[in-house]
Amino acid sequence: MLTIDRLQLGDRDAWEGLFRGYIDFYQRTLSDEEYERAWQRLQADSEIHGRVARDDGRVVGIAHFLTHPHTNAADVCYLQDLFTDQEFRGRGVGRALIEYVAAWGQQQGCSQLYWRTHASNAKARVLYDQVAENRGFIVYQRDLQRRSE
Prior knowledge:
Blueprint: E1 2-6, H1 12-25, H2 32-44, E2 49-55, E3 58-68, E4 76-84, H3 93-107, E5 112-114, H4 122-131
Parallel strand pairs: 4-5
Antiparallel strand pairs: 1-2, 2-3, 3-4
């Protein structure tokens, strides 16, 4: 049975394994210190939030999200990271996490939920096209700090 809940202290290893998979998927690297910082912020559950999907108690997916102000609407909820264990893809884990975050955002009074993915992420985009609308925006990014390699 699939459940979604907060990260627990005992989830650290499973969470980090999935988060490392997410970072690897996007061909990025993070230092151990950055994983620790992310874990601490997610444990605080105040500015950025983390939830896990469990299948019979096993952590099989993660979602990291936050809210931020919007200039012409109520606050919005940004789903920053979403990742499912390879073995559990196609079983509704991603959808369940998205629906959980959408309901959470709605409870917080957010006007919308949004996220981004790479154009080449075809498998995930099949799900995303079912649960949300691609409005065609192009994302530009400028790094302000150099990350450790």
